[in-house]
């Protein structure tokens, strides 16, 4: 089986990008080891700090953020980084071709129950001259690479450099990522959806109606039974979508009117959307392709609907309907 280094060597990408991706991969091996040792390494539980999003940081959120920051600083190819766990962009040096955005630990609420967690990353080109928050505000179409690492029963890396999606499995013996799927392809159709149903009362009319029709199964307008899954870690839900298809959504809701969306554009929605599009799927807010959004801030949040192309297209048809004349749901 090809190693990550061998596969990257066969792709038409700059040597500096291959080096950066190797650095991200080798840091994820160290993170995987820390996650696997769990309570033995004293890494479980919470800190008494909140991040910029007002969420209490888990110890592992902080540890993994520091590991990635240190590795990227030492790498020399990265000018600045933006992280879920950093209030502001962190400038790493005057040289380097890239900006990196990352969610060091996705699925934080799963840590203490020994369930799926991961790391998500997005690589953007660095502009000429000084870097600032403004430098990061590039649409997802500008990403030169994106990926995630899933710390599951096996540790797996999903990666795109714009040449399809490759899946690698970490060989714990050698510490190397080996290519286990050279061309991930998301089936166009599906009978599986992923949504946090506990928010149902807070959704807007299009999502209420769409999910309502899925739940009606064979006797509803879709005339087909659907199954539901929810891992509570985007990285796990998107991995299932890449592996066997499905539709994943974290839609707009009015639970907290100050925060109508949950997922973050720069280090969750954009990298996952590039992976999904590169694997033949589709990704939208309901009204716009996620990759076309012009970001306004590094911690901006968005509605996300992604997965099997035909099913996402069907969901978008519900968003094209005018519900204003219909009674409140
Ligand atoms: O708590 P909920 O509503 O199930 O939300 C789960 C979602 O929140 C997230 O865990 C947010 O990510 P973080 O753990 O990085 O904050 C997503 O991965 C996941 O899809
Ligand atoms: Mg996350
Ligand atoms: Mg996180």
Automatic annotation (TrEMBL):
Signal peptide: none annotated. This is Fructose-1,6-bisphosphatase class 1. Belongs to the FBPase class 1 family. Residues 186-319 form the Fructose-1-6-bisphosphatase class 1 C-terminal domain. Mg(2+) 1 binds at residues 84, 103, 105. Binds 2 magnesium ions per subunit. Gene3D superfamilies: 3.40.190.80, Fructose-1,6-Bisphosphatase, subunit A, domain 1 (3.30.540.10). It is found in: Cytoplasm. Residues 15-181 form the Fructose-1-6-bisphosphatase class I N-terminal domain. Its cofactor is Mg(2+). Mg(2+) 2 binds at residues 103, 106, 268. InterPro entries: FBPase_C_dom, FBPase_class-1, FBPase_N, FBPtase. The gene is fbp. One of its GO terms (molecular function) is fructose 1,6-bisphosphate 1-phosphatase activity. It comes from Shewanella yunxiaonensis. It catalyses: beta-D-fructose 1,6-bisphosphate + H2O = beta-D-fructose 6-phosphate + phosphate. Pfam families: FBPase (PF00316), FBPase_C (PF18913). Substrate binds at residues 106-109, 196, 262. Homotetramer. Its EC number is 3.1.3.11. It is an enzyme of class 3 (hydrolase). Pathway: Carbohydrate biosynthesis. SUPFAM superfamilies: Carbohydrate phosphatase (SSF56655). Keywords: Carbohydrate metabolism, Cytoplasm, Hydrolase, Magnesium, Metal-binding.
